[in-house]
Design goal:
Helix 3 runs antiparallel to helix 6. The longest helix has 19 residues. This protein has three domains: 80 residues, Uridine Diphospho-n-acetylenolpyruvylglucosamine Reductase, domain 2; 113 residues, Uridine Diphospho-n-acetylenolpyruvylglucosamine Reductase, domain 3 (2-Layer Sandwich); 69 residues, UDP-N-acetylenolpyruvoylglucosamine reductase, C-terminal domain (Uridine Diphospho-n-acetylenolpyruvylglucosamine Reductase, domain 1), CATH 3.90.78.10. By secondary structure, it is an alpha+beta fold. The protein has eight helices and 19 strands. Strands 6-7-13-11-12 form a five-stranded antiparallel sheet. It has a four-stranded mixed sheet with strand order 1-2-5-3.
């Protein structure tokens, strides 16, 4: 059920050069393939277009950002306000002197890793193991296979809700494990990373190993959102879920992966509500079994089936 009128909101929004669409379906833009529409979906033409929109749009209008949809669960009732999805203008990846790489927020992590490798730049290899884009990596200190975004970031460029462009140093991002302490209203548009000299063939071989490891241990060819829960200090989430007897546990077509217990999968007909119910059931059962509380790593946005946030 839809709880808003996108056409009415669209009429109140400032003119832009990019694309705006009212009542736009979001399910096909997420890896889970579930969820309701965006009241308005906005794809800015470039950073200046994004700045103009944020400067002139009422601050009472909710704004959410999605990337390639790999780490997000859109609820079935849809998302009120404006959902911003950065497109082609934010996908650039450029190599700079001193083994530095500048990447747009919409650039896929794997592409950034590959460009760095082709230029014999090491230290960005771990990005091959993150199924998302640079904007998401910045917002959650994305990491995999021994590396984290905080290890390579020099600075991030962002636009505030008021439309002001800011450049944040690594220190200003206030990174901790899978968390960024920068203001929530900032929309990241690009980042500058510091690599180190390496051997092209060795880097590419390491990336191949990451690819093989992911294919062997993760359900990457299913409808999934990636790692569902953060690893609690001193624990691994998948082990806690497995110990609670939840490997393969399902709510409707939402299921705990039998290949990797920290992945939830949509077997075809799941709703967002079922996936979220499955996640909350896991959290409760793990706490009952081990005394450890799991924290969602996947971002959940939008309105539930009954209209609740």
């Amino acid at each position: 059920m839809q709880w808003f009128d996108g056409e009415k909101l669209l009429a109140k929004l400032p003119k832009v050069r990019g694309r705006m669409e009212a009542n736009c379906p979001l399910a096909d833009l997420t890896w889970f393939r579930v969820g309701g529409p965006a009241e308005v979906l906005f794809s800015p033409a470039d950073e200046a277009d994004l700045v103009n929109f944020l400067k002139h749009a009422s601050e009472n209008i909710p704004v959410n950002v999605i990337g390639v949809g790999s780490n997000v669960l859109v609820r079935d009732g849809g998302v009120r306000g404006v959902v911003i999805r950065l497109g082609r203008a934010f996908m650039n990846v450029e190599v700079e002197p001193e083994y530095r790489v500048r990447a747009g927020a919409a650039a896929l992590d794997v592409r950034v890793a590959r460009v760095a490798a082709e230029h014999s730049i090491d230290a960005l290899t771990f990005l091959r193991g993150i199924p998302g884009s640079i904007g998401g990596a910045l917002r959650m200190n994305g990491g995999a296979y021994g590396g984290e975004t905080k290890d390579i970031l020099i600075e991030a460029r962002a636009v505030s809700r008021k439309g002001n462009v800011e450049v944040l140093s690594n220190g200003r991002m206030n990174y901790t494990y899978r968390h960024c302490g920068a203001p929530e209203d900032l929309i990241f548009t690009s980042a500058l990373f510091q690599g180190r000299p390496g051997n092209r063939n060795e880097i590419l071989a390491a990336m191949d190993q990451i690819t093989a490891s992911r294919e062997a241990t993760q359900p990457i060819k299913t409808k999934t959102g990636g790692s569902t829960f953060k690893n609690p200090i001193g624990h691994k989430s998948w082990q806690l879920i497995d110990a609670a007897g939840l490997r393969g546990f399902a709510v409707g077509d939402a299921k705990v992966s039998e290949q990797h217990c920290n992945f939830l999968i949509n077997e075809g007909g799941a709703t967002a509500a079922q996936i979220e119910e499955l996640g909350e059931t896991i959290r409760r059962r793990v706490t009952e079994n081990s005394g450890v509380e799991l924290e969602w790593e996947i971002k959940r946005i939008g309105i539930g089936q009954a209209g609740e946030p």
